[in-house]
Amino acid sequence: MKKLIYISLAIILVSCNIISNDSRFGVVYQDSKTAQISDDKSNYWLAKQNTLQENFISTQKFYKEEGSLILDYKYPHLDEEYNPVFSSFNSFIEKTYLRTEKSVQQVLHNNDLSCDPIFKDAERKRRNIDYKIYTKNDQFLSVLLYKTNYYDEEHHNSFMFKGLNYDLKTGMFITYSDLFENNSDKFLLFKLNQELQARIGGQDSFNDCWEFTKDKFEVSKNNFVVNSEHIKFYFDDCAVCPTYSGNYFLEIPLEELSSILKTGKSESSYFKS
After folding, report:
1. Per-residue pLDDT of the chain (273 residues; tens, 9 = 90+)
2. Are 182 and 190 spatial neighbours (Cβ–Cβ below 8 Å)?
3. What single DSSP character describes residue 12?
4. How far is CA 23 from CA 20, 28, 94, 188, in A?
5. Strand, coil or helix: what is 244?
6. Which secondary-structure segment (H or E) carries 226?
7. Which residues neighbour 222 within 8 Å (Cβ) at sequence distance 6 or greater?
8. Which of 203, 193, 192, 215 lies closest to 245, judged by CA?
């Protein structure tokens, strides 16, 4: 298979402190320091993962009760003593999620937190955030933030996701345009819908999903994570599939995207041929 991705030279897949063991989200949720990771074939690689994680990344917690609302977050924190450029990552997390008043108001008053009509008049009671690392090496960090809103009625919750891709050398966040050629949207949208149709035809849980439209793609195009073989585009409740289906991502092998990936045309490229 053609070697597409520069970061695959040192890719490590680390599973970080996620709240449940639910394959719907495409991840295995377990503690990276205490649990055996099913994909690892030897203790050497498990030890290697733990050592690299301890070098510069740790799990931080934030808990706040604000009236009837509880904020309970776990999030990655990068060691700025290890590399000062990491301040941009930590600052993003702080500004987006940890400023209590802003976070509370967003949860309480953002009508877009769920598109499911059963939540229209429901009171939001709790917001949880946790994360999983998909890729980490000396240049590239790919993280999925997994966000859950809990409501006043039992078993009522909604899900949102945020993919963060970060250049560990420059301290810059990596976007869709950094990885894909110009004018690649049409082809990638076609590939996503091709994958969706295959899922609809082969998995009952996808039967009620609908086409990935251009406007939905525009919203989700920067909401992706990357591992050594695939790119996964995450979407929130009701964007592509109804809430009850429990489906929140589509993945495409990198090999199938070779024609639209930026492959080594500059030193800053993350994909090399």
Report:
1. 434 444 443 333 333 333 333 333 333 222 333 222 334 433 444 454 455 455 789 999 999 888 888 889 999 999 999 999 999 999 999 988 887 677 677 666 655 555 566 666 667 788 899 999 998 888 899 999 998 888 776 667 778 899 999 999 999 999 999 999 999 999 999 999 999 999 888 888 888 888 888 988 998 899 999 988 899 999 887 788 877 777 889 999 999 998 999 875 443 455 543
2. no
3. -
4. 9, 7, 29, 25
5. helix
6. strand 224-226
7. 163, 175, 176
8. 203
Q: Across the strands, what pairs with 244?
A: none
Tokens, residue 86: 């990491």
Strands 57-66 and 69-78: antiparallel
- Distance CA(113)–CA(69), nearest Å, equals 15
**C-alpha angle 145/20/124, rounded to 5°?**
65
User: Beta 69-78 vs 172-173: how paired, if at all?
Assistant: unpaired
Long-range contacts, 185-191 (Cβ 8 Å, 24+): 185/214, 185/217, 185/221, 187/259, 187/260, 188/217, 188/221, 188/252, 188/257, 188/260, 189/214, 189/217, 191/252, 191/256, 191/257
Q: Is 267 exposed, middle or buried (0-12, 13-18, 19+ CB in 10 A)?
A: exposed
Helix/strand/coil for 60: strand
CA dihedral 203, 207, 209, 214 (to 10 degrees): 80
Identity of the residue numbered 63: Y
State the Cα–Cα distance between residues 259 and 262, nearest whole angstrom: 9
pTM of the predicted model as reported, rounded to 2 decimal places? 0.74
Q: 217 and 202 in contact (C-beta within 8 Å)?
A: no
Can you tell me the distance from the alpha carbon of 179 to that of 93, in angstroms, rounded to the nearest whole number? 23
Three-state DSSP class for residue 230: strand
